[in-house]
Structures are given as C-alpha cells and as structure tokens.
Design a protein that fits this description.
211 residues; 2 strands; globular; 6 helices; two-stranded antiparallel ribbon; mainly alpha; disordered N terminus
C-alpha cells in the first residue's frame, strides 16, 4: 500500500487548468505547454493499438494513461521501495490533479489510485534536456503572468522518479534557476493533465483469474 499525505477534498467539477488571465491583444497565438512536449501530438491521442491475438476484453490505455497506470502498478508491487519526497505545486495544480484522480477512480473502479502514481509518471515523463526544462518554466510563467506561491507536500515516489527529480532540480541550478522547482513541477503536472484530458476516462483494469 502506498503511503501518501491526506488529500484535500476535490471540487464537484474539474477546475480549469491554469487559464491565462492576460488581456486579449492582437498578437500571434502564445506557445502552449503541449506544443513543447517531448512527444507532441496533434489532436486527440489514439489509444494504444492491440497486438494481434490480444484479449478483446483487455483495457486500451492511452499513452499517458499507461504511464500513470505503470506507476500505480509499481507502487503496489514495489511499495517497500517507494519513499516520500517533497513536491511543490501551486494550489490550482493540486486541485486539478485531485479532480483527475477522483474522476479516474470512478471510471476505473480502482479506489487506490492517488496522487503518487500521477506525480511519479509526471517526473518520469519529464524531458532531460536543460533547454526544454527552461522553456517549460518560461511557458508556465507566460501563461500565468508569473507563477504564484506554491503548496509543498510530501508524495511517495519510486526510486527512479526520486533520482530523476533530484537531477531535474540540479539541472535548474546549473541553469541559474535554482528556485524554479515549483514552476517546473507545475508546468510538468499541467502538461500531463492536459494530455490525459485528451485521452478521456481511465478504463477499468482487467482482472485476471489465477485458475
């Protein structure tokens, strides 16, 4: 069982994902976090294609749903290796994440889904190129006209995610952006939530019988 911090109550409706409050001006369309994804895609992402001979009842996960599901399964199988680490996101991002978790619990029937699986997937999906990281920080600041104060809490992560997370923070330090960890994590989380939104509801997992 994954250890996690208590979750705030999620709103009945999914909050808007960080809509910019900048006044409308006649300028070119702003860059989006999605367009700077390491694996950009146009329009709605297609579900993972079934292999020939695959079970017809097997759930078809989208690319990013699969990443979350892989982290969730790992948190159950290797729970002894998952440890707490501080994560700082702005309150609106936490609210959007919790709303997604609530919706995915309902659609999948998996009541153990929680923040750790999503944050773990967010970190493992993060680009490692420093220029991409800096651009993500710049983009979220552009959308929000400056990232507001964050809310730091502890979330369980896999060993791989903890190692990569520390590497991301070190990379920001090398780029003279040492205090931008909150901005980067907010940008990465929003980017993942937007990708998940295009893939729809989390499907129900297939329960295999032992005999």
């Amino acid at each position: 069982m994954v250890e996690e911090s208590p979750e705030p109550a999620a709103a009945d409706e999914t909050p808007a994902l960080l809509v910019s409050t900048a006044p409308a001006v006649e300028t070119p369309a702003p860059l989006s976090l999605e367009s700077r994804s390491p694996r950009p895609s146009a329009g709605k992402q297609k579900p993972v294609r079934k292999e020939r001979g695959a079970d017809a009842d097997a759930p078809q996960y989208g690319e990013n749903q699969q990443k979350v599901w892989n982290s969730f399964k790992d948190s159950r199988v290797r729970s002894r290796l998952w440890k707490q680490h501080g994560v700082n996101l702005i309150p609106e991002a936490w609210e959007a994440l919790d709303a997604r978790v609530k919706a995915d619990r309902k659609s999948s029937g998996e009541t153990e889904l929680a923040r750790p699986a999503y944050i773990d997937a967010v970190i493992l999906d993060a680009p490692q190129d420093i220029d991409e990281l800096v651009e993500l920080v710049d983009l979220i600041n552009e959308e929000l006209l400056g990232v507001p104060a964050g809310d730091r809490t502890s979330v369980s992560m896999s060993p791989e995610a903890r190692k990569k997370f520390l590497g991301l923070l070190e990379a920001l330090g090398d780029a003279r952006m040492k205090r931008k960890g909150k901005d980067l994590m907010t940008a990465l989380t929003v980017r993942m939530l937007r990708k998940l939104e295009t893939e729809g509801s989390m499907p129900k997992p297939q329960r295999r019988r032992l005999l």
